[in-house]
Write a structure and sequence with these properties.
CATH architecture of the largest domain: Orthogonal Bundle
CATH topology of the largest domain: Hypothetical protein af1432
CATH class of the largest domain: Mainly Alpha
Shape: globular
Strand content: 15-25%
CATH superfamily of the largest domain: Hypothetical protein af1432
Number of helices: 23
Strand order of the largest sheet: 8-7-6-9-11-10
Number of strands: 14
Distance between the termini: 57 Å
Radius of gyration: 26 Å
Helix content: 40-55%
Length: 522
């Protein structure tokens, strides 16, 4: 493959950044340009739900500049992403449309789970350090303007991820409104953040050891990228050089320096704009709070930003890079963790997963769905019984509400809605498109097909005794024959399968039929 030029744009709550990369299979990803403009979108949207005319004009000017730079570099593909400032914008669709019309750049509004997954990919792009760290108890602390995401890893896989809706800009806004004096700054930030942190610890850290923190932010990462700061820390620790991986006590020393200096002195020493000083202090206090809570020994500040995750995701999907880490396994692990949280049956979920995926793979020509929809089916199978945690009698609606209220890392809001509806209609009467109010036709068809497959899978495991853990599927004369070992008693499954078979036939024009394998040559 020839060299490809790609642009990643992050329209954040405090700044807009564009990185331009050169991509090739031979050399991988090479960054060749990084342009940043500070613009405080978050304060607007967190306060009013809309963006001011002044900031809209500023954003338009920046994106026009980016558009021209992309033309100069002959960029072939780009991805522009808006984060929390856009998510909380009441008129986001109007703003996105106006900006695209004037600048030619289309902004994709990321859900929180999608944004954090890209951040997570940007860390994984660093390779060996990441893969080694997550083998032991590790927390990724992703500090944004509107919220903080904490993701826990152990034995090389994602254990859980949770969002604390209190980021640096939101905290600063609250402190500004109460007129916090500098002397009370640290105490008030701790008071705001620690109450949320204690809830997280009680729910997710009981009996769990965290040895490492990986920090993604815009402020600590910025100063740790500066050689003078690293030299300063090296001298204090008696080291030749301070890497981005440092012991917790070295961070504590840095934290004490940040806390001790006044605003002007902090800006001068760390070579940052004056307006970033309180944000650096808040980010540092958040990290200190999490270190105090987890007692982690090591801190890694990889210095990645969302743009790095965007290009990594693009290179992965276009097979420009060979990827060591299996991100899909992390999504599935996250779904299993949600199921456990709501007392789902792990054995039953894994059986249903296996049956549903086998039907999906065997009927690929019938449904024409992609690997991504296969993943959504798998998650629906994992979460099929989560509603029982609230109500045995209203399982379907409770499951729908749980899934719609629970973020799954790497899954968009639209995809979460597909999963929730598939689980809902697996248990409840199907609502047809003509009766739907919010689901578009394309999404409806995906939901219908996945529901038909999950219903069939559920029917094959009606007794919850894993009778169909090993079966064969073949098409013949407009029927889908599902053949199981003759020694198994499937009277219950055969007797109750017709209704599920009716719906499958309605969707695919093929009727599934349960058969038992013949023995003895008969």
């Amino acid at each position: 493959m020839a060299v490809r030029m790609f642009s990643a744009i992050d329209v954040g709550s405090h700044e807009i950044e564009m990185k331009i990369f050169e991509l090739s299979r031979k050399n991988g990803i090479r960054q060749i340009e990084d342009i940043r403009h500070r613009i405080d979108l978050g304060t607007d949207t967190y306060h009013t739900g809309k963006i001011s005319s002044k900031h809209l004009a500023g954003m338009r000017k920046i994106l026009q500049e980016f558009s021209q730079i992309m033309k100069n570099y002959q960029v072939e593909a780009y991805r522009a992403c808006g984060t929390s400032a856009f998510r909380e914008m009441q008129n986001a669709s109007i703003v996105v449309s106006r900006l695209e019309q004037v600048t030619g750049i289309r902004i994709e509004i990321l859900g929180n789970a999608e944004q954090r997954f890209l951040d997570y990919k940007s860390i994984a792009a660093r390779g060996g350090d990441f893969n080694a760290l997550i083998e032991n108890g590790t927390a990724i602390v992703d500090i944004g303007g509107g919220s903080v995401q904490i993701s826990l890893f152990d034995n090389g896989k994602l254990v859980t991820t949770q969002n604390i809706r209190l980021g640096v800009l939101r905290i600063q806004d609250q402190l500004d409104r109460i007129g916090a004096a500098p002397a009370r700054f640290e105490g008030l930030v701790r008071e705001l953040f620690d109450s949320r942190l204690r809830i997280f610890a009680n729910l997710y850290l009981q009996g769990r050891e965290i040895k490492n923190l990986i920090v993604v932010d815009d402020y600590i990462s910025e100063i740790m990228a500066k050689q003078n700061v690293r030299d300063f820390l090296s001298r204090q620790a008696g080291l030749e050089e301070t890497p981005r991986m440092l012991p917790a006590d070295q961070f504590f020393f840095l934290y004490d320096q940040i806390k001790a200096f006044g605003a002007a002195e902090t800006a001068r020493i760390f070579e940052i704009p004056d307006e970033n000083v309180p944000l650096l202090k808040i980010s540092s206090i958040i990290v200190r709070s999490i270190l105090d809570m987890t007692k982690a020994d090591t801190l890694w500040i990889p210095g990645v930003v969302l743009c790095d995750g965007i290009v990594y995701d693009y290179a992965e999907k276009n097979r420009i890079l060979s990827v060591d880490h299996d991100f899909q396994k992390d999504i599935i692990a996250s779904a299993h963790e949600i199921s456990r949280r709501y007392n789902g049956s792990e054995e039953r979920s894994r059986t249903l997963e296996k049956i549903a995926l086998k039907i999906f793979d065997a009927t690929e020509k019938l449904h024409g769905l992609s690997a991504r929809e296969r993943l959504l089916l798998q998650i629906a199978a994992i979460l099929h019984d989560c509603g029982k945690f609230i109500s045995m009698n209203n399982l379907a609606e409770c499951a729908y509400q749980i899934i719609m209220s629970t973020e799954i890392i790497g899954i968009s809001k639209k995809e979460r809605e597909i999963i929730a509806n598939v689980v809902l209609f697996n248990h409840a009467d199907f609502v047809y498109y003509e009766e739907q109010t919010e689901i578009d036709r394309e999404t409806y068809l995906v939901i219908a097909k996945l529901t038909a497959i999950l219903r069939a899978a559920n029917g094959l495991d009606r007794s919850h005794r894993r009778k169909f853990s090993d079966f064969k599927i073949r098409m013949k004369d407009g029927q889908l024959f599902i053949t199981v070992d003759a020694r198994i008693d499937i009277t219950l499954e055969k007797g109750l399968f017709d209704r599920r078979a009716d719906f499958f036939e309605e969707i695919f024009a093929v009727r599934p039929v349960i058969r038992q394998k013949k023995t003895g040559g008969k």
